[in-house]
């Protein structure tokens, strides 16, 4: 995994900074997510009922499961910032679930750095335009605008910002 410095970040705005490895989403993962979140809606966990009563022809992953996998995708492919002491999830400006993720599908994240902004002495706010691709599908599973905060020692703040 390549590393970048805080000073490099503004120059990366507008570029795709990473594409994650593929993650397979088996029915067992969907079932465990349903158990964890207490969301047992039939379209996620009842294969027979979903096959006959849903417009999807079978079960599908929770949109929030796809969203939650962004952390693993990010960790897999987004360059590490040398000076970072901690990273925080600040939130999302926009999330759209575009296509269902079916059991057994493979998905991966594409991360485009949309903006960076230094805040205070020891924080960098980063905004990523993220798209989650489904293997062999034209339409993405999800798109999002994700905001994170990189914390660093104020002594490491680039003088040019």
UniProtKB/TrEMBL annotation:
InterPro entries: HotDog_dom_sf (IPR029069), MaoC-like_dom (IPR002539), NodN-like (IPR039375)
CDD domains per UniProt: NodN (cd03450)
Start and end residues of each MaoC-like domain: 13-119
Domain of life (superkingdom): Bacteria
PANTHER family: MAOC-LIKE DEHYDRATASE DOMAIN-CONTAINING PROTEIN (PTHR42993:SF1)
Name of the protein: MaoC family dehydratase
Taxonomic source organism: Neorhizobium turbinariae
